[in-house]
């Protein structure tokens, strides 16, 4: 693998409209199942408000993020060789037939690029996409610059992802480039446990039930989680799988856990962040904590956490940064960035 | 020198049940004139009889691994290339996870691709080859798809039919160091201004509750205007030059099984070198989305018309709008 592929620029876009968590819980359906963790989902989550897109489409969110990132990087859109959409929830039209990648290509004028989308990994889609993008760039002399984009807009009354988190709308973009001396992607490790494939799904209009027609909630577009299986099958292996991918990527590049200067981890909830810190002995100052004020942003969490940490001066030159997350499917991913 | 990546095995798993195009046109209330019939060049298509897309994909994956004599535990990545909507909404759900579990490829991770239409297979192929050749810890990939057409939507663009879509699945086992079927290179292209040339508007965020819009729709004027043959020939010439292979060195070209009209455009662009297996498979199976290439590749190998060392070019254009070309050395 070409070890000189790195992150040239990254940024995100969040719609300005916000909705308080109390309003979200008031508006949306109340979960009836019990959550195995010893927490009060509504009180202990640590997120106070969510960003909510109004007239903007999911693709608009991705395009806005791409434009911000392109402007910040100063590169010509015609330099981009690859565009990969890593959005992890349904987009404006039905997938896998359609993806927003082509629309982004058109809107930013990346006329030389090839545009495609990766549709696996859930919130870990960022890691899966890093794996594919760096492999394609490493294997092909003609791919020097890649733009990774995502835009997530949840249906109006589906921001409550009980028992995991509450979700914001937003977009993110990352530009990868060859011949980087800083922010180099040293390695990516992804693991999937396919037997959990149907634990977290969105039914789709073809599975719509007659009682759902005309109601307040278009349930066929809402996530449905099997909470009993979540409690019994996911929670017991979650930290084991995180350990597996994190140690896996460290082994790939000959590093140890103590070499990691900073961790970027999803902002699912305050208790989940605490559990991660305790399990891996990560002190709070080495972990993204501030992102909770944005709410959880699916796969975009990885970009938000990374960008916010750089902007806050929490990641410095020479730091080794670990980005780790999990997502629907279920998949776990970890990547190492050398600053 | 990097070890080449090649095709160890390819399998198509198609429903045994078939229906005639004449019947399907009747069922969807479309007149099948002799002019349309000649333009399509499709007699019948396989239709699922209760099977789900993912179950067909699992069956294809199992057969491919068995044929390749590969233990599922050796698979490092499962790469999925479907085009049609799956049992649940993608990207939250993807059949690759189910395939991974059902075939027992527990050491692998999964990747799926969206938005490339019939080019998705070559996007998957190119990405899998890149992962296997660039990551020392990865040697074997399982590529898989299962596509079932939306009921009542088998004829694309009823006002002026473009193709008739069947149901089917396929799987391909790729391995670093495989003796044949070496994937030498792939060229990919997309035109974002045509991102909405073909899509399914209903049941999505833009049209969440209109079941009547849950149909694959095509902008025929823009589809016709898209220079498919010229684009694919230009890409092929570029790829062949990069690989140091002359056009005259090619044993044949494999294209998608969209219609006889589309094949005629490909024959024109590729100087009559499109293999006869494409027409034969098109007549008997119709358009099977990403499975068209594995089906045609298998037929070509089985026909005995290519020998080891021969060069075969696979070309495909899809919604997105995308185009893809892969060069394979048998």
Reported for the largest beta sheet of chain B, the result is: 5 strands, mixed
CATH architecture of the largest domain in chain A: 3-Layer(aba) Sandwich
- Tally the beta strands of chain A: 15
Instruction: List the secondary-structure elements of chain A in sequence, H or E.
Output: EEHHEHEHEHEEEEEEEHEHHEE
Structural class of chain A: alpha+beta
Domain count of chain B: 2
Determine the number of helices of chain A (DSSP H or I, runs of at least 4 residues). 8
Helix content of chain A: 25-40%
CATH class descriptor of the largest domain in chain B? Alpha Beta
Question: Unreliable stretches of chain B, pLDDT < 50, 5 or more residues?
Answer: none
Q: What pattern of helices and strands is seen along the backbone of chain B? A: EEHHEHEHEHEEEEEEEHHEHHHEE
Overview of the molecule:
- The complex is a heterodimer of chains A (339) and B (330).
- With 339 residues, chain A is an alpha+beta fold.
- Chain A has 2 domains: 176 residues, Thiolase/Chalcone synthase (Peroxisomal Thiolase, Chain A, domain 1, 3-Layer(aba) Sandwich); 152 residues, Peroxisomal Thiolase, Chain A, domain 1, CATH 3.40.47.
- Chain A has a 5-stranded mixed sheet, with helices on both faces. A 4-stranded mixed sheet of chain A has the order 10-15-14-13.
- The two termini of chain A are 18 Å apart.
- In chain B, helix 4 links the parallel strand 4 and strand 5.
- With 330 residues, chain B is of the alpha+beta class.
- Chain B folds into 2 domains: 175 residues, Peroxisomal Thiolase, Chain A, domain 1 (3-Layer(aba) Sandwich), CATH 3.40.47.10; 146 residues, Peroxisomal Thiolase, Chain A, domain 1, CATH 3.40.47.10.
- In chain B, 33% of the residues lie in helices and 24% in strands.
- Chain B has a 5-stranded mixed sheet with strand order 1-9-6-4-5, sandwiched between helices. A 4-stranded mixed sheet of chain B has the order 10-15-14-13, with helices on both faces. A two-stranded antiparallel sheet of chain B has the order 2-3.
- Chain B is built from 10 helices and 15 strands.
- The mean pLDDT of chain B is 97.
- At the A-B interface, helix 4, strand 5, helix 5, strand 10 and strand 11 of A face helix 4, strand 5, helix 5, strand 10 and strand 11 of B.
- Strand 5 of chain A pairs antiparallel with strand 5 of chain B, so a sheet runs across the interface.
